[in-house]
């Protein structure tokens, strides 16, 4: 049990178990892709989980598949949780899940860019640069409380999105509201978090408060835009074909 609790004490290892719960039988490469982590680091976490018997591995040709082993967790439940009143615990869990669902971001995207925080910040806020990789000019003075506009770069000067700057902490964090200029019935919030790791920048974009139709559009749009941003900063040019114009599937 000591090994089980030690393994579960780490957030990354709990995340690995969650991913295996959702899709059992993943390779190291598949798990690394979801974590944004090096193979060496992921291997160390998986070794701890395997030592605690929380996961098991099976060889399939040259691949090593990882599977969740629920037995130790069941033993924890039998030893401690079954002593409590199950109906009351289920009721409390339902309340917790409902409260967390209301706070859960609609979209979180993380990309790593070979650049500096200052250059990433400039790419997010400079109107000419955003026009290069987004086909829109992000126009504002980027001061807290100022308005901003997501303006088409085709010469029409049409604003497809407008909003307000909530947080401006260059080059680390930018938070803006988003709304349709023709419909102020809903407002969403976008947070850009810029973190430096040596010569690499981790850019995290969180989009919250979306309505149902916008979720599908955002799920395709953000990855495409940020891929184009990464290309611009790392190669000096945007992708040959705008990624949002590429067919999905």
Task: Give a brief rundown of this model.
With 249 residues, this protein is an alpha+beta fold. Helix content is 43%, strand content 29%.
Describe the structure in your own words.
Strand 4 (136-139) and strand 5 form a beta hairpin. The chain is elongated, with a radius of gyration of 22 Å. The chain has a seven-stranded antiparallel β-sheet with strand order 3-9-8-7-6-5-4. A two-stranded antiparallel sheet has the order 1-2. The protein is of the alpha+beta class. The protein starts with a helix and ends in a 14-residue tail after the last helix. It contains nine helices and nine strands. The protein has helices at 2-8, 11-22, 28-35, 39-51, 71-79, 86-103, 117-125, 127-134, 212-235; strands at 55-60, 63-68, 107-113, 136-139, 147-152, 159-169, 173-180, 183-197, 200-208.
Major pleated sheet:
7 strands, antiparallel
Helicity range: 40-55%
Q: What is the count of β-strands?
A: 9
In angstroms, what separates the terminal alpha carbons?
44 Å
Assembly annotation = single chain
The percent range for strand residues is 25-35%
Q: What are the low-pLDDT stretches, counting only 5+ consecutive residues below 50?
A: none
Outline the secondary-structure elements.
Elements: H1 2-8, H2 11-22, H3 28-35, H4 39-51, E1 55-60, E2 63-68, H5 71-79, H6 86-103, E3 107-113, H7 117-125, H8 127-134, E4 136-139, E5 147-152, E6 159-169, E7 173-180, E8 183-197, E9 200-208, H9 212-235
Antiparallel strand pairs: 1-2, 3-9, 4-5, 5-6, 6-7, 7-8, 8-9
């Amino acid at each position: 049990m000591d090994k089980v609790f030690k393994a579960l004490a780490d957030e990354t290892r709990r995340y690995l178990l969650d991913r295996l719960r959702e899709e059992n039988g993943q390779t190291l490469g598949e798990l690394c892709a979801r974590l944004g982590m090096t193979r060496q680091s992921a291997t160390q976490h998986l070794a701890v989980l395997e030592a605690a018997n929380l996961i098991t591995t099976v060889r399939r040709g040259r691949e090593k598949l990882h599977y969740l082993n629920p037995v130790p967790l069941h033993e924890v439940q039998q030893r401690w949780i079954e002593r409590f009143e199950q109906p009351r615990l289920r009721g409390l869990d339902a309340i917790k899940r409902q409260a967390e669902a209301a706070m859960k971001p609609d979209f979180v995207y993380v990309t790593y860019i070979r650049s500096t925080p200052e250059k990433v910040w400039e790419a997010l806020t400079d109107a000419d640069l955003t026009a290069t990789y987004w086909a829109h000019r992000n126009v504002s003075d980027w001061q807290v409380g100022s308005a901003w506009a997501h303006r088409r770069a085709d010469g029409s000067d049409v604003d497809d999105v407008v909003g307000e700057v909530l947080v401006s902490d260059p080059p680390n964090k930018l938070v803006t509201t988003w709304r349709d200029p023709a419909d102020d019935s809903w407002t969403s919030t976008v947070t850009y978090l810029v973190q430096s790791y040596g010569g690499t920048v981790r850019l995290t974009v969180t989009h919250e408060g979306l309505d149902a139709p916008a979720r599908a559009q955002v799920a395709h749009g953000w990855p495409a835009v940020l891929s184009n941003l990464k290309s611009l900063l790392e190669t000096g040019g945007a992708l040959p074909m705008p990624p949002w114009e590429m067919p999905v599937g």
